[in-house]
Amino acid sequence: MKNNQLPRLTIVVPCYNEEPVLPNSAPILQTLLQHLIDNQQITTDSKLLFVDDGSQDQTWALITQLHHQDPLFTGLQFSRNYGQEAALMAGMQVPISIQISLSLLMPIFKMTQPLFQP
Question: What is the pLDDT of residues 54-103, one digit of tens each?
């Protein structure tokens, strides 16, 4: 299937004070997304969108660092905590504005186990 016929996927991940778990969960999600890209199931411009819901720790700094390490990662930062639902809704608006085919909403809470076996 040609790249322009594949769906573009954005995985929206709401984050609030996720500094302790983000370093472990981000690579798991990155591996999942890269696996889908490598198997030509989604486009190469698919993204992981972390929505920082006004975190008081270093969550935003980690998201920024991830973005600089790999363009699969992107982020959206709230000025204060609006709640998980607002973070999910904001994350869903970004894909609509850039014509994303699919969005997957995923809380990050204590993600330690692999989601799939490649």
Answer: 999 999 999 999 999 999 999 988 888 777 777 777 777 665 445 555 55
H/E stretch holding 115 reads none
> 25 is in which domain, residue-wise?
10-47+55-105
> Read out DSSP for 35-68?
HHHHTTSS-TT-EEEEEE-S-SSSHHHHHHHHHH
| Domain count for the chain | 1
Torsional class of 51: left (φ above 0), alpha (ψ -120 to 50), beta (otherwise): beta
CB 107 within 8 A of CB 85: no
Residue type for 103, please? S
Query: Could you tell me which of 79, 30, 20, 29 has the C-alpha nearest to residue 51?
Result: 79
Is 5 inside any structural domain?
A: no
